[in-house]
Design goal:
- The protein is α+β, with helices and mostly antiparallel strands.
- It folds into 2 domains: about 260 residues, Transferase(Phosphotransferase), domain 1; about 110 residues, Phosphorylase Kinase, domain 1 (2-Layer Sandwich), CATH 3.30.200.
- Helix content is about 30%, strand content about 20%.
- Helix 4 runs antiparallel to helix 6 and helix 4 crosses helix 10.
- The N and C termini lie far apart (about 45 Å).
């Protein structure tokens, strides 16, 4: 059990799926507060390997196999779609699936009971995101996300892999890499994380975001729910590239996007922002949350969270958080973007050197001899803020 292994409480609605795969699912909740009269919130390792550069690879067009139903089994291409729901959002639903390994629906007839279990255990799990084609703007935005994922997702282990894309007359089917839970669900189960666990997770995150920035891509929606996790190995995959964008140096972006608990103050204030520094701020917020068991600007309402963030009224650190950890978080969450740490400087911080060592270990201690009860609570489920992901983006010169 991790330090303060209390459950994370949600006072509005309890999450139904503790092992939800968040391979791009947004929560369906929509909120519409105003912050100081501003725009409303809209839901919407140090690697030793050489990182390949992202070229102008043409996106693979979706194949169009017919959805086959036989013997009570639904298949699309080489994948079986189950009834188990991993996530639900305004886009549609994410269901558990299995790779058939060359088998076809017509040849599948697993029996109930132990036969069904053996049938599933022998096949690779996947997460199948099913999106209705009814909204043309949403589909257009989704194609952009697919193109970006096809260019970055299969080149780095810390970014969720998009295996294949299928479509029929009614839906798009995105076949994603499967992870057993997201970081939100993991912290619901374990509470505030032991520092060594946080190190292993965070080192992978920084490595993935560093790779994105090296190739001119900003994520812009880094949060607990978008960090997929294998509970046994603690292997991480960054997911949901709906707000991700390409950028070049000497540009500032204007799109108001992100999530209330990890959004940077310059976005809230509608100040043209450096997309890299926005990601660094969000990473610092995630690290604070893992080590402290609460959000850095936690408050009773979303409005209060945003006001505290904009005014930079950060909550106190947990007493067990050491100097090096605090220094890294403060550097990543510096209110001044000019003084805020870059991702490359983050990788050179002394705490990150210890994190690289922790990541290399085959085992990790999950218990702390001096754990204290600490719960993570909020009155609103974390949601995305900003314009619709299908809306256009304005860029302004630095």
């Amino acid at each position: 059990m991790a330090p303060g292994g209390s459950q994370i409480h949600d006072h509005v609605h309890k999450r139904k799926h503790h092992h939800k795969n968040k391979a791009s699912a947004k929560k369906p909740t929509e909120v519409d507060p105003m912050v100081d009269g501003e725009s409303p919130i809209i839901e919407e390792s140090d690697s030793s390997h050489r990182r390949p550069s992202l070229g102008a690879t043409e996106p693979t067009p979706p194949s169009q196999p017919a959805t086959i139903k036989t013997n009570g089994i639904t298949c699309i291409g080489d994948y079986m779609i189950t009834e188990q729901v991993l996530g639900v959002g305004s886009f549609g639903v994410v269901r558990l699936g299995f790779r058939l390994g060359g088998g076809r629906a017509g040849s599948l007839s697993p029996r109930r009971g132990s036969g069904d279990e053996n049938f599933c255990l022998q096949r690779e799990k996947v997460a199948i995101k099913i999106v209705s084609r009814e909204d043309p703007k949403r589909i257009e935005a989704l194609y952009k996300e697919i193109e970006l994922l096809q260019q970055v997702g299969n080149y780095h282990p810390g970014i969720v892999h998009l295996h294949e894309v299928y479509e029929d007359e009614s839906n798009l089917y995105l076949i994603f890499q499967y992870k057993s839970c997201d970081l939100y669900a993991y912290m619901e189960k374990h509470g505030r994380l032991h520092e060594e666990v946080a190190m292993r997770i965070f080192d992978q995150l920084v490595d993935a975001v560093s790779y994105l920035h090296e190739n001119g891509v900003a994520h812009r929606d880094i949060k607990l729910e978008n960090i997929l996790l294998d509970e046994e190995t603690l292997e991480v995959a960054l997911a949901d590239f709906g707000f991700a964008t390409r950028y070049v140096a000497a540009e500032r972006l204007n799109k108001w996007c992100g999530s209330p608990y990890t959004v940077s103050p310059e976005i809230i204030a509608h100040i043209p922002y450096d997309p890299e520094k926005v990601d660094v701020w969000a990473l610092g917020s995630v690290l604070y949350t893992m080590l402290c068991g609460q959000f850095p600007f936690q408050a009773e309402t979303i409005n209060d969270v945003l006001r505290k963030t904009k005014a930079f009224r950060m909550n106190k650190f947990h007493t067990d958080v050491g100097y090096s950890s605090r220094d890294l978080i403060k550097s990543m969450m510096n209110f001044s973007t000019d003084k805020r740490m870059s991702i490359s400087r983050c990788r050179q911080h002394p705490w990150m050197r210890f994190a690289a060592v922790a990541r290399s270990r085959t085992t990790v201690c999950l218990d702390s001899p001096a754990s204290t009860a600490l719960e993570m609570s909020w009155s609103h489920q974390p949601t995305a803020i900003g314009e619709s992901k299908s809306s256009g983006e304005k860029k302004s010169p630095r």
